[in-house]
Amino acid sequence: MKSIVLASSNQGKLREFAQILAAFDFEVIPQSQLNVPDVPETGLSFVENALIKARNAAQHTSLPAMSDDSGIEVDALQGAPGIYSARFAGEKASDADNNKLLLEKLKDIPDEQRTARYHCVIVYMHHANDPMPLICQGTWEGRILHEPRGEHGFGYDPFFYVPTHQCASAELPPEVKNQLSHRGQALRILQTTLQSSFSS
Question: 29: which residues sit within 8 A by CB, 6+ positions away?
């Protein structure tokens, strides 16, 4: 199997990456296993933050590195929380803290104006000085519910309504979510690109 270090300590993301990429002969090693320190996400976009994290992991391990930067964009909040999704309620915020703040900000917003979408950008770098990193992205449309639903997923999933399946993201079985989600879309593009580059 080909080893790739994942520049993330988010357990939910690690599970999804491992599930999706295992089928394509890629072994995903979390950066924590290789003692890679976290790096400040100082970018102003998903792409910038993903590049910062992937380059940091590659520099510390000398392995190919992959990073995801993702979040939720709510139209009624002018795109917030966006790149600050994981720390919407503060640097040490939990998923519950972030969801509570999101609901507070949307408390007077009617259903038809609670449209939102998940964005995911995945960066793959062959090495720390890679002049042409692979950048893949996916988007998943939905809206924000008033109450949590479901036991699966993480982050904003209990409040993210998926119109095509008439349920919350957290109500979807993991294999179904991986087919639909922003991260699943971006990973499949990455997997196709990597397979063609390794086989050429």
Answer: 3, 4, 5, 6, 63
**34 closest CA partner among 58, 53, 2, 68:** 58
Cα–Cα distance measured from residue 58 to residue 163, given in angstroms and rounded to the nearest whole number: 38
Round to whole Å and give the CA distance between 7 and 36. Answer: 8
CA distance 138 to 97: 26
- Tell me, yes or no, if 25 is annotated catalytic: no
- Please check the confidence at residue 2 and state whether its pLDDT lies above 90: no
Q: Are 3 and 58 in contact (CB under 8 A)?
A: no
User: In the predicted model, what is the mean pLDDT of the chain?
Assistant: 92
Neighbour count for residue 102 (Cβ, 10 Å): 22
* Segment 38-59 mean pLDDT: 96
Given 25, 68, 69, 130, the catalytic residue: 69
Residue of 149, 167, 70, 156 lying closest to 106 (CA atoms): 156
The letter for the amino acid at 39 is V
pLDDT score at 127: 95
Of all residues in the chain, what percent carry a pLDDT higher than 90?
78
Element (H, E) at 11: helix 11-22
